Amino acid sequence: MKTQGIFLPLAFAFMAMPAVAQTQAASTTMANDLPPQDKEFVQAASMSGSTEIDAAKLATKRSEDKDVKSFAHHMIVDHTKLTVELKMAAPHGVSVPKDNSDTTVLNSLKGLHGKEFDSAYIKSVGVEGHQKAVEAFKKEAEGGSNAALKKAAAKALPTIQDHLKMAQQLAAKKGVQ
User: Fold this and answer.
1) 92 and 76 in one domain?
2) Do 13 and 40 belong to one domain?
């Protein structure tokens, strides 16, 4: 009799499990239905961050300039944090791509070394990359539909804007146009 009292609740718990799984699946599916602007933002932000990190890693190996290496190290640290924050802000069931760097940008840097690398890195990743990122984060912060993504974009925007200023200052210092 006692064993029946233990097993009956367990049997009911197991019967209820498929309903829980269905609810989780339904919420995951619903989360994947982000509005187009939010989907574009997740893609653009993850690509920007991934490209920044990968290009900065190249800069630590290919550059001989302490200012460029310092900038690159700063980008690795900050963009790694921003990537984590983006993943935490993404709704349940929405995956944030991990390694989706812009291969065109990275390939254009891979064959370069020294000052030639520095100029290309500062221009294409530092300045142009951050200009695009500022636009994407600003657009999401001002007009995104998903509250968590909108908040994350607004929170990250000042950091991205600072990166752009740093890149512009580095470009001016190194004579990169």
Assistant:
1) yes
2) no
